[in-house]
Amino acid sequence: MEAIAQDERRDTRQESRQGAGQDRAQETLYLRIAQQLEGSIRAGTLARGERLASVRELARQQGVSMATVVQAYRTLEDARLIEARPRSGYFVAGRPGRRAAEPETTALAPQAQPVAVSSLSARVMGMAHEPGVVSFGAVCPSADLFPEERVRRAVSRAAQRHRASLCRYPTGHGAAEFRRAVARQALALGCQLDPERIVSTTGCQAAISLCLRAVTQPGDVVALESPTSFGFLELLESMHLRALEIPTHPRHGLSVDALSLALDTQPVKAVIAVPTLSNPLGSSMPLAERRRLAQLVAQRGVALIEDVLYNPLCEHDEQRRAVRSFDPTGHVMLCGSYSKTLAPGLRVGWTDAGRWSAEVRHLKAVHSGSYTELMELALADLLMQPGLESGFRHLRSTVAARVADARELVAESFPKGTRVTDPPGGFILWVELPAGSDAMALYEACLRERICIAPGSIFSTTGRYGHCIRLGLGGRWDEAQRRALRRVGELAQALMREGEPAG
Ligand SMILES: Cc1ncc(COP(=O)(O)O)c(C=O)c1O
């Protein structure tokens, strides 16, 4: 309902600006009908592929004009919730094809492990960016998902307006305009941040790195979701930290109960979590669990490094709220960037490190000197422009349609018994092949056909995900990608057949 409700607010604003001659009652009517239908689709009352009432039928049922119904259907089409099929009418988007089951909660790692994933992850990522490779390996969204022209204009405007910034050393811990813009955006996370405490960084990864450095020493234990982003594991490896993987539910995220037990028995110094759209599971913690997590780390005096990079991509309003919003104690170190949602090329991220702000400021000064003023000013400009939220909404619906498509392809082409996540947003799928499958062998077979996938083993230190793969669906999405994904499934089937005992 939320997408269209926001449209209504936007449209209403536009209407009051444009004023003249619009029939307001008519407009509200079509939005009401669109919202009702959206609710039925999201609740599953109207299933994928199901035919909707004809324009005439619905107009009669609702006692409105056919033009109003057409407008309602167009609104739902724009939100990619329904599709018009020539000479057949309107249908709920997505085919009613096979659906694969979702994976189950992952298991607790018995103890903290040293990390050694970087050589394999570097190899995988190297291939993910090779020209001519169809890549599901990385989670880099392609340029067509972003307002490229607006970003370009913001950069040139910043260069025009702030000429002096090009030839001087910036001082401080980030451009004031950028820190203010981040604080304003953080209201959408439910957080009131003091711009003075925000430190800018070179992306979210650098923010997490600074926070980790501020709260750990080599040899310390860091708890994370399982599976987790290999970028986090690489950071731990480079800092000689040990990883303790905590059971994670593919929908509800990190288990707070399991974390609590782990904190009882292990000397955990910090927790890294992505409570909204974790990578690679795509899980999003319910609000009550976010509150419990904030309370737990505060009670135990442990730092929680919360990564909010993907929050704007979550389809559920309430799950965009940060754990930090429940923490008055400063134990949550908030880290973010706009690399997946607005402008990856600007390479600007940020952190508000709570009670460790002074340490993080110092570390930032030591490790990267200052900041790239021009890019921060450009990003601040983009963040303060109207239309940012509607851009996120558009991004959400675009990637939702392709992720739904990819899930169906997995259900159709991968071996029987394959499970796949169903995340409430983002562009990552985690695929669990039947037990005994060898995701590394699949990775090699795919590479021979110039397709790149990410094998599950780089997302953990436990060796538990040797039969899993991650699919990054942020790149182009067209028939070539669909064909390639089907081919991954066929190769997985062929490898399974090879592994079966003869006769
Ligand atoms: C969970 C998570 N955090 C951080 C990053 C890195 O973000 P940035 O590109 O802003 O450094 C990624 C990149 O894939 C990620 O998945």
Automatic annotation (TrEMBL):
The keyword Metal-binding does not apply. InterPro entries: Aminotransferase_I/II_large (IPR004839), HTH_trans_reg/aminotransferase (IPR051446), PyrdxlP-dep_Trfase (IPR015424), PyrdxlP-dep_Trfase_major (IPR015421), PyrdxlP-dep_Trfase_small (IPR015422), Tscrpt_reg_HTH_GntR (IPR000524), WH-like_DNA-bd_sf (IPR036388), WH_DNA-bd_sf (IPR036390). Pfam families: Aminotran_1_2, GntR. Residues 1-24 are annotated as: Disordered. GO terms for molecular function: transaminase activity. Gene3D superfamilies: Aspartate Aminotransferase, domain 1, Type I PLP-dependent aspartate aminotransferase-like (Major domain), Winged helix-like DNA-binding domain superfamily/Winged helix DNA-binding domain. Residues 1-16 have a biased composition (Basic and acidic residues). Residues 27-95 form the HTH gntR-type domain. Keywords: Aminotransferase, DNA-binding, Pyridoxal phosphate, Transcription, Transcription regulation, Transferase. The keyword Repeat does not apply. SMART domains: HTH_GNTR. PROSITE patterns: HTH_GNTR. In the C-terminal section; belongs to the class-I pyridoxal-phosphate-dependent aminotransferase family. This is PLP-dependent aminotransferase family protein.
